[in-house]
Write a structure and sequence with these properties.
Elements lengths: L1 H36 L5 E7 L2 E7 L16 E2 L4 H14 L29 H5 L10 H7 L10 H9 L14 H15 L3 H10 L20 E2 L5 E2 L14 E2 L1 H12 L4 H9 L4 E2 L4 E2 L4 E4 L4 E8 L4 E7 L4 E7 L4 H16 L1
Antiparallel strand pairs: 1-2, 1-12, 3-6, 4-5, 7-8, 8-9, 9-10, 10-11, 11-12
């Protein structure tokens, strides 16, 4: 009996290994084909299935660089930062620092004064699922003012005026993507932990997972990619300030796979918090939302995903908890269509 069991275990390992190798080859083929057709767009991809990790990368650190990118090359993950922020909010809820259905009033910095009809109206979960109804930052105007660093013109005064001058929530309870909402979540985290957002994300995600090529403020490193706008022009990495919790993080395929591994593996705070972020907070005919997490369901699968676009780079993270896989796709050009097309193709041809 012992010999038979050992033989079965070996066969199972070989089968799993072959399955993983087959997936990696198919993903590499799709990414390689895309690069052949779009040689100006560098791509780095990480994939995890069970405990097996696979990486593929095509392109150079920049158009002028002779250096190939790899799994450690640093990209802007932009709004994927929001899924990290929502995980931190969920961790705080699990630790009873806050409740997701608490109203935001008592958690806001002193400078904010909600008008009477906004008091005891907006919940923390409303901010995290983009249904608070609060007005947002006008990125169009900010880009006109400073196309390389548009968020540089967003200050504490700017945000205070947006919140304090809001007399009505025109679309409360309806989905509308919000940078202001996630900025407030960052400030709520700072209040309940008594630390800066930067310190919190390092202590609770970046450092425990040893994400050594993930950066928040100091990111002028040798393995950093160059970003390009849709027209091919060079675009600086954003230097986030007060709105950091909405888009601050710079990372790479290897470190984001470390994050996905934590999300998919029992026995750590990030896993427990991720389960909470996956609970549906908002649903309409077009989408389902958890806390910062888009939820997509078909007949066979439920996947959780979040995309990110800076002015010069595009990215997407996606995972299937039931089938225990996750993927991160990073592009050095702002090209949301390419990034979505790549994920769709990989999902339909390989993962579905």
């Amino acid at each position: 009996m012992k010999t038979s069991f050992t033989f079965f275990a070996v066969l199972l390992f070989i089968s799993s290994f072959s399955f993983g190798q087959d997936i990696s080859k198919k993903i590499d083929s799709i990414i390689g084909d895309n690069y052949q057709k779009n040689p100006d767009v560098a791509i780095s991809v990480g994939f995890i299935h069970n405990d097996d990790e696979f990486y593929t990368a095509y392109g150079k650190l920049s158009k002028e660089s002779p250096v190939d990118i790899n799994k450690n090359s640093v990209f802007e993950i932009a709004s994927i930062t929001k899924i990290l922020t929502s995980n931190l909010i969920a961790q705080a809820a699990i630790e009873k620092k806050l409740k997701l259905d608490d109203y935001i009033d008592s958690y806001l910095p002193k400078g904010y004064v909600l008008q009477k009809n906004l008091k005891n109206k907006i919940k923390i979960s409303d901010l995290a699922s983009h249904q608070s109804g609060l007005p947002d930052i006008d990125f169009g105007k900010l880009i006109e003012l400073n196309p390389q660093q548009p968020v540089s013109n967003v200050t504490e005064k700017t945000l205070t005026e947006i919140i304090n001058n809001c007399g009505e929530l025109l679309d409360y309870g309806k989905y509308r993507y919000s940078t202001v909402g996630y900025t407030l979540l960052g400030q709520i985290l700072e209040k309940v932990y008594g630390k800066t957002y930067d310190a919190i994300i390092h202590e609770r995600i970046i450092d425990p997972l040893q994400m050594t090529n993930t950066f928040t403020t100091e990111f002028n490193v040798k393995n950093r990619t160059t970003g390009y706008n849709p027209n091919g022009g060079t675009q600086e990495f954003f230097k986030w300030n007060i709105t950091a919790s909405a888009g601050l993080v710079k990372s790479n395929a290897a470190d984001m796979i470390s994050y996905l591994k934590a999300v998919l593996t029992k026995g750590n705070p990030i896993y427990e918090a991720a389960l909470l972020t996956e609970k549906i907070c908002y649903k309409d005919e077009k989408r389902e939302m958890g806390l910062g997490t888009n939820i997509s369901t078909d007949d066979q699968n439920t996947i959780y995903l979040k995309s990110g676009d800076s002015m010069g780079q595009s990215s997407i993270i996606c995972y299937n908890r039931a089938k225990n896989w996750g993927i991160i796709i990073l592009l050095n050009q702002r090209n949301s269509k390419m990034r979505q097309d790549l994920l769709n193709k990989i999902y339909e041809k390989v993962l579905k």
